[in-house]
Every structure is written in structure tokens, then in C-alpha cells.
Amino acid sequence: MCLDAWLTILQAVHPGSPGVVELLRAQGTAANVVALPRRDLMAVGLDTKTVARLKSPDADLLADWSRWLERPGHTLVTVDSPGYPPLLQELPDPPLALWSVGARLDLLQAPQLAMVGSRNPTRSGRDTAERFAHYLSDRGLTITSGLATGIDGAGHRGGLAGAAGTVAVLGSGLDVIYPATHHALAQNIIADGLLISEYPPKTPPRSLHFPQRNRIIAGLSVGTLVVEAARRSGSLITARLAADYGREVFAIPGSIHSPLAKGCHRLIKDGAKLVEDAADVLVELPSLLQFPNRAEAAAVEPAIDSDSITAQPGYPQLLQAMDFEPCSLSQMSERTGLTTAELSSMLLLLELEGFVEALPGGLYSRLPKRSA
């Protein structure tokens, strides 16, 4: 890779500019593109401002980018590089280059699963995302998401806890962490995973960047799992892109009363695979993973801790009576015969242990089983 030629191109064109990848493929190298006469560059559709920047690049900007790339763990992976993700090469509009920082550049070549969903999930949704991500990471799937609050963050944390790690795709430069509340998470990902972006250093987050980022998340991944999404959630854009790219789409169903289940239910109606446990994802991707069938995948599903509070008298019966639909104290009292005082005490302990979620309006909902 001729770094100077690549940096010249990247400062001249906007990410996602049409026709540049085809021009690079036709010319063979970035250096050949930069060396083309102005008339030839204009003939392939580049505008006068782009051609001017190619012929008279911003020397200060190139120097800044070069210094950034000299720092440990900082890399530029270009579309003509052997390290460029092969699945991204299949996209109709692959990014020209990926700026990256982190200890695990190898993750760009690993099988990845995108995990996306609500920025304001329920506790149940957040716990499910983290638990599934941890489990799937241990089975060989790198968890890829967009570092947003909510489901994205939970997916990254679960991926970090597992063996296959996590990749975060930003809609800004890698030195502009967004949202700022995920600065510590980003540092953890740099230490044990990988941050990538199509946007060069010092690029601020802009609304236009996030749909572009979503195409990279979907394009990197063999499949996309949606965990809690409203009917108009941006996560549905990522899922649609994944389907357009011929990748698998998975969705976790929820309560018919929850607005955060509407998007997932819509995806399932449109053909997404319904996911009830992590093994459902593994079975759809047998060629990439170690489990050839559903029975073997289910056999390694994490078990509930038998020493948990739910083993104590009365608690299993209460959880069974609650089911997974929101219910009130009076409803639980009718089903169990327990007084509201007894229920309040038991529900408090269950909530502290993560088995129950308190909802607005005095309602409670049972959470999915926790893994050990």
C-alpha cells in the first residue's frame, strides 16, 4: 500500500463517493489513480473540486493523519489491502478504507454477528443482549455493533467477555467517541477488541454518518440479530441492509404489549428468523461454527445457577405464576395465594438478583433466565 497516495485520495473524496472504488480497481493502485491526468479524472466523473484536491492535497491534513497512524495500534485498512474484510468487498458501495484502533485487527477477518436494537431498552432486553453476546462470542462469533447506548453497548460488553471479542463501528473519527458516556467502554474495546470507522480522525458525529455506518455493520457480518426495536427504530435499517446483502436476519420476539417488540415482530413477519435462545442463531450458521445441529448447540446452552434464590421455597412458584407478561401485585396474589406484603418482599429480592423487573404503574415482569 502506498500510504501517501491513499491519504491523498481520502482527503480528496468524501466517504461513500460513487465511482471511486471502480476507478481504483480499474487503475490497480492508489498511486496510479493519483498519477492520472486531470482530463482522465474528469472523464470518469470526478468533479473539479475533487480533482483539484487530488492534484494539490492538503499537506497539513496529510501530516496530521500520518502522525495519527504512527501511534501504536492505529491502522488504515484500504480496500486493496489483504486485510480488508472479504464480506465488505461484496457490497455495492464498500468503504474505501477503514481507520482502526485496537489490539485485535484480526477480528476484521473473523466471522461476525451484528447485534443492534433500542437505545433505551428494558432491563430484560439489555440483559438478554449481553448474555447472548457473551455466549455467541464464546462459540466463535465476534459481536459487531455501533457503540450506541442500550443494546449496542450491552452487545459489546458481552462480546468482550467472550472469546471472539467485539468490533465497534463509529459514525465519527476514532478520536471522537460518541456517545461520550461510552468513553470507558471504547477504551475497553481498544484494549481487547477493535474500533473502526470510515471517517478520518477529528470527524465529528453527524446524522448522515449513521446510515452509512449501519451499512458497514451489516456488511461486515454474516447475520444481524435485533434485540428490542420500536416500529421505526434505526435498527430496522441495519436489518434491511443485511437482508439486501443476502445475510441472515434474526429477531427476538417480545410481549405484544411492548412497543419495543413491534420492530422485531415486523421483522419476523417479513421473514427474519425467530430467536428464543442463542442456539437458534448457531444452527443457522453451521459452516462457520462448531455445532452441526440444533441438539449439539442446545447441549451447551448455559444453565441456571442451582444455588440461586429461585431454589428457595415459594420463589419458583411465584416466577411461574408471573410468566413473562406484566402483572400487578393483586394478580400475583390471586394466582399464588400470597399476601401483598409477602409478595413485595419476595419481588424485591428477585429484582435485586435480576430475575424480575419493576415496571411503571406498579407492574412487574419476569426476566429471561440468567446464565451462570
Write the layout of secondary structure elements.
Layout: H1 3-12, H2 20-27, H3 30-35, H4 38-43, H5 48-55, H6 59-70, E1 74-78, H7 86-89, E2 97-101, E3 112-117, H8 123-138, E4 142-145, H9 151-161, E5 166-170, H10 183-192, E6 194-197, H11 209-220, E7 223-227, H12 235-244, E8 248-251, H13 262-269, E9 273-274, H14 278-284, H15 294-299, H16 315-322, E10 327-328, H17 329-336, H18 340-352, E11 356-359, E12 363-366
Parallel strand pairs: 3-4, 3-7, 4-5, 5-6, 7-8, 8-9
Antiparallel strand pairs: 1-2, 2-6, 10-12, 11-12
Helix pairs in contact: 1-5, 1-6, 8-9, 9-10, 11-12
Task: Summarize, please.
The protein is α/β, with parallel strands linked by helices. The protein contains 18 helices and 12 strands.
Keyword list:
3-stranded antiparallel beta sheet, single chain, 44% helix, Rossmann fold, 3 domains, alpha/beta, 372 residues
Detailed description of the structure:
- This protein is of the alpha/beta class and 372 residues long.
- The chain has three domains: 1-70, no CATH class; 105-299, 3-Layer(aba) Sandwich (Rossmann fold), CATH 3.40.50; 309-366, Winged helix-like DNA-binding domain superfamily/Winged helix DNA-binding domain (Arc Repressor Mutant, subunit A, Orthogonal Bundle).
- The protein is built from 18 helices and twelve strands.
- The chain has helices spanning 3-12, 20-27, 30-35, 38-43, 48-55, 59-70, 86-89, 123-138, 151-161, 183-192, 209-220, 235-244, 262-269, 278-284, 294-299, 315-322, 329-336, 340-352, and strands at 74-78, 97-101, 112-117, 142-145, 166-170, 194-197, 223-227, 248-251, 273-274, 327-328, 356-359, 363-366.
- The protein has a nine-stranded mixed sheet, sandwiched between helices. Strands 10-12-11 form a three-stranded antiparallel sheet.
- A hairpin with a 3-residue loop joins strand 11 and strand 12 (363-366).
- Helix 8 runs parallel beside helix 9 (151-161) and helix 11 (209-220) packs across helix 12.
- The chain is elongated and about 85 Å long.
- Mean pLDDT is 88; it is low at 290-307.
